[in-house]
């Protein structure tokens, strides 16, 4: 798995004294369209991913997924321990000329080669640490994907900056479909974990070629603009610190469980993570692909973020809460229907991990605001807080009480991270704790209503789960009338415009 970076020249900015209201309205329409495209593209992407995952679980054994999880963790580690925030810098910076973009691309290419070399360096320590000799060969091969990623066009980031989500989502979907076909074909022919590696490398190669062919924008070439490089490195030094800590913070559960769990059980945990990551990744994609560019553009023209933040936060919270409720109530049934008995343990793991979707969504959205303001120090501090919790609480809980309690510690690990981000938002005059705390209480009430219905029905059938989900969602929507009303108004406006 590659590190996915929270991703023509942009239109000229409207000065504050020249009709700012129409400019803000236009930005709102772009954000709405962008969010819709991200949601639709992500939904299609999940269909492809889960379809491929289901086929692969029947062609390969849980041990293969456990090995691939370790490869992904190590590969993400070398990615994030060398992250200079090149994509984020392109989105956030005022400059978007050819010299700036080509300098960014030059740095990116050099970093890709260094990442490939780094996989050779970490291969033996990783194989020794986890007792898996195959990692000695798998990591350097997987590192080739990082090298290819270095050549990806900066048009990806400029499209993100300009909120051109339709092209980005279609591009990502084409890459994923192509890589999934290669992965499934390789698994069918070899019945080996190497098929998963082939898909990873194929995705990087296809993404690199297509980014230069179909995305347009500046035609990248090697260039060095001293001012642009200095600006990127100034922004990137704290991104580097934040990303290095973020790797350990986000992958801490995998690092700990990879050491103490058998590979078969680790593979089951990986399957559960794949289900839970779906709604979380959608929130992250919208936060960093849509709201991060939006807040960055607003800061370049209008520093008043209060109204925009509160409306966007309420809307995102509505979606995140709905996803958490549905997965918590229906997740075990989904595992039972989609996977065979070897993955049965994933049922209760999914239900427990689903509780963490809410905290993760709050963190992703708040982080996009903090990053748009250039307060990367607070982002680094928040990741450090999560890391301290994971390295302290999870191993202790596992030794004293077992896997179940350790997993509960993972679920609440985003709380200290969120508190630091909330402090960063206070620097911009955004007071978010009270509103998010109130919505959290409402989510607990809605979840309790759904679980109570399941217990009263005394069944885990499709009908019982559907009734429980409907009850929980109805309670959640009833307690969040304002964002629901906003969505309804937007839909009515879009339909009226189409009829007109």
UniProtKB/TrEMBL annotation:
Signal peptide per UniProt: none
InterPro entries on file: Poly_Biosynth_Transport
Transferase found in the keyword field: no
Alphabetized UniProt keyword annotations: Cell membrane, Membrane, Transmembrane, Transmembrane helix
Superkingdom assignment: Bacteria
Annotated GO CC locations: plasma membrane
Record region (Disordered): 1-20
First-listed, main subcellular location of the protein, grouped into a coarse class: membrane
Subcellular location: Cell membrane
Membrane topology: Multi-pass membrane protein
Transmembrane regions: 64-91, 112-131, 137-156, 168-188, 194-216, 228-249, 269-292, 313-336, 348-371, 378-399, 460-479
UniProt similarity note: Belongs to the polysaccharide synthase family.
PANTHER family, A to Z: LIPOPOLYSACCHARIDE BIOSYNTHESIS PROTEIN WZXC, PST FAMILY PREDICTED COLANIC ACID TRANSPORTER
Name of the protein this chain belongs to: Polysaccharide biosynthesis protein
